[in-house]
Structures are given as C-alpha cells and as structure tokens.
C-alpha cells in the first residue's frame, strides 16, 4: 500500500495540475472567444489579466484557512466551486456572464497554496525543496501539457460533441466536471498532516494577527517580490504566448501556436523540481554558488536564478526582433527554465523558513506573486510599444529593483533574522525556529 506522504503528495499534485489546466484553459481558445464576443487585441490582454484577478486575494485568504482547517477541507471546497463556475462559463451567452464566471473559475489558481501547505505537513525540512518541487513542477505542467497541449487536441477547431459544437465551451464544461469529482475525492482520501502534533501546531498559529506579522517579515516580503518576477511572469506568459506567436509571427494555426506556447509552460512546470532539489543540495552540502552571500546557501541559488530570469527576458526580445519564430520559441523555453528554477528555489525557502506557518506564508508569497500575472500582460500588449517583442525587455527592466531588494535581504546579517525582523507590525514569539513536535 502506498505510503501516506506519497498518497497526499499525489492528491495535491493532481489537484494543482487540474487547477492550472482550468486556470489557463482560456489561453488556447482566445481567437475563437474573441471572434464570438468581438474582442480586440488590447481587450484580449485585459481579459487575460482578468483571468488572474481573483487569485491574489484568494491566495492570501486560502493560506491561513488551510492552516486552520486543513488541506482536505479547503481543497475540496475550492475544487467544487471552481468546477461549478467552469461549467457555468461553458453555457455563457453574454460577455459579462462569461467574464464573471471565468474570474471565479480562475480561483483554480489558489490550489497552489493549498498544495504547498499540504505537502509541507508531510515532508521533513531537508527534503522540502524536492517534494515541493515535484508538486509544483508536475502541477504547473497543467498549464502547458493540460491547457496548451491536451485541450486544443481533444477540443480542436472542428470539434462537435453531444452537448456543444463549440470547442472552448466543451473544454470548460468537461474540465469543470472533473474538478467537482476530484474535489469530492480529496475530502474522502486526503489527510491533513503527518502527526496530530504537527496539525495542532499549524492550526494554532493561524490567526489574523499572525498573518499580518508573518506577512511583514523581511523573509516573506523578499520572497513575495521574487515570486512576482518569476511566477507572476509565468502566469503572464502562459496566458499571453499563444496570442504572441499568432499575432507577432502570423501563426494562425491554433494547435501549432498552442504547441509553441507549451514549450515555455512545460519548461516552467516540469523543470521546477530541479530548482527545489538544487536548493536542498546546496543547503545540505553547504556549497557556495554565489559567495557574496556567505553561508546563505539557499539564498545564493535563488539570487542566481533570479538574475537568469532577467537576462533571459532580454534575450526573448532580441530573439523576437530577428523575425524567426523558432528562435523566439527557443528563447521562450529558456525563460521558462529560469522561472522553473527560481520558483523551485523560492518555495524550498518558504516552508524551511516558516515551518508552522507554511500555508499563511505560501498564501502571502503566492498571492502577491500572482500580481505579476495581472500586470505583465498589460505591458506585453501595450499599444504604445513599437512592436510585440519589446514588452519582454520592458518587464526585465522593472525587475531590477526586485533584484536590488533581494541582494539586501540575502546579506547574512539580515538574512539570519529575516523571519523575526520586518515592518512594524506587532507579533508574538519568533517564527523562524523549526517545530520540535511536527516531524518524526
């Protein structure tokens, strides 16, 4: 019989993978949806942002709720709600009903926070980066393998079915049904934590005062900012690349454009465990990747990968300006690699730094990080830019202040107190120490 920690990791990963498939299921069908509702290119950028608008607040809320009530309860409720509104969006006849139902269905994006908390309740600190990387990596692949590769092939342009003759309506309907079924299954088979002591420590730390205190520590602030420029970028590009390859290079075939876009999503998803594993490895072996931050091994790896993201975005603009779509696709793949490695590194640090508040901190980091997914598409589609390639370089420039913030907090003298020091918000006992009763 499968070990309980692996069973719960599998459940969390299935939830997250399906959640991201639903969250990004809008992207491959933008052309058909735009035609039906009469949307311009700029309006498509707005709709793409609207698809993530509910997620930041949802993540901030679901984190402490998951700490308090346990992942099986919050996962089940989230999946059922998401599934119901995904089904509603399949039957929408007006742009207003469609937009509202998709915004609520986009709460599928908060499954990430639930899963991060659930996995952290079952794995030891020295394996957290790897376990969270597996969860987040395979889960993130829902955007690429699920939304961009699988859905356009099952529900292609010539799709006709028993309920719908429109492909995107069928895709939204059936993924919604699967979410409802999985939500019910999660409540039946999921277990909140490895031990009751660990569950109790997590539950007792969930309060509004705690959320405010934890969320304003330097460690949470800097990881949130780093997540804006990595996961926020991933969300933005997952929702934008299909349109980019179609409009900037004249690639009108929905399947081919979606496949090109999927190369980024697959890299950003499936390679994420490497980022977490290397973070675990450098921490265990005390191997210096970037000696500027002496003794802060996870921070060294994280900062190196954040720099890689900025450089890869500049390369993305240069590749697009060549006019060769294949060069642009390869460049997009490397942007995905940078996102994957960075995100794996960031979420190796989150539960390691905040062991009894992993859901709360995941909600803060994940919620704030998602803001990038709302803002960046507006830059990519900005009408004042000379072409659709320049937006990547503009976004890269906006990330430089975040690198500066990271370089300050990652200094050893500041990093060692990053879970206690922060903005002037009242709290209680220090929160950086490991939980003595939570692991065996």
TrEMBL record:
<feature type="transmembrane region" description="Helical">
    <location>
        <begin position="325"/>
        <end position="348"/>
    </location>
</feature>
<dbReference type="GO" id="GO:0016020">
    <property type="term" value="C:membrane"/>
</dbReference>
<dbReference type="InterPro" id="IPR036259">
    <property type="entry name" value="MFS_trans_sf"/>
</dbReference>
<feature type="transmembrane region" description="Helical">
    <location>
        <begin position="390"/>
        <end position="410"/>
    </location>
</feature>
<comment type="similarity">
    <text>Belongs to the major facilitator superfamily. Nitrate/nitrite porter (TC 2.A.1.8) family.</text>
</comment>
<feature type="transmembrane region" description="Helical">
    <location>
        <begin position="69"/>
        <end position="91"/>
    </location>
</feature>
<feature type="transmembrane region" description="Helical">
    <location>
        <begin position="128"/>
        <end position="151"/>
    </location>
</feature>
<dbReference type="InterPro" id="IPR011701">
    <property type="entry name" value="MFS"/>
</dbReference>
<protein>
    <submittedName>
        <fullName>Major facilitator superfamily protein</fullName>
    </submittedName>
</protein>
<keyword id="KW-1133">Transmembrane helix</keyword>
<feature type="transmembrane region" description="Helical">
    <location>
        <begin position="249"/>
        <end position="271"/>
    </location>
</feature>
<feature type="transmembrane region" description="Helical">
    <location>
        <begin position="301"/>
        <end position="319"/>
    </location>
</feature>
<feature type="transmembrane region" description="Helical">
    <location>
        <begin position="41"/>
        <end position="62"/>
    </location>
</feature>
<feature type="transmembrane region" description="Helical">
    <location>
        <begin position="360"/>
        <end position="384"/>
    </location>
</feature>
<dbReference type="InterPro" id="IPR044772">
    <property type="entry name" value="NO3_transporter"/>
</dbReference>
<feature type="transmembrane region" description="Helical">
    <location>
        <begin position="211"/>
        <end position="229"/>
    </location>
</feature>
<dbReference type="GO" id="GO:0015112">
    <property type="term" value="F:nitrate transmembrane transporter activity"/>
</dbReference>
<feature type="transmembrane region" description="Helical">
    <location>
        <begin position="9"/>
        <end position="29"/>
    </location>
</feature>
<feature type="domain" description="Major facilitator superfamily (MFS) profile">
    <location>
        <begin position="5"/>
        <end position="415"/>
    </location>
</feature>
<dbReference type="GO" id="GO:0042128">
    <property type="term" value="P:nitrate assimilation"/>
</dbReference>
<feature type="transmembrane region" description="Helical">
    <location>
        <begin position="171"/>
        <end position="190"/>
    </location>
</feature>
<keyword id="KW-0534">Nitrate assimilation</keyword>
<keyword id="KW-0812">Transmembrane</keyword>
<dbReference type="Pfam" id="PF07690">
    <property type="entry name" value="MFS_1"/>
</dbReference>
<feature type="transmembrane region" description="Helical">
    <location>
        <begin position="97"/>
        <end position="116"/>
    </location>
</feature>
<keyword id="KW-0472">Membrane</keyword>
<dbReference type="InterPro" id="IPR020846">
    <property type="entry name" value="MFS_dom"/>
</dbReference>
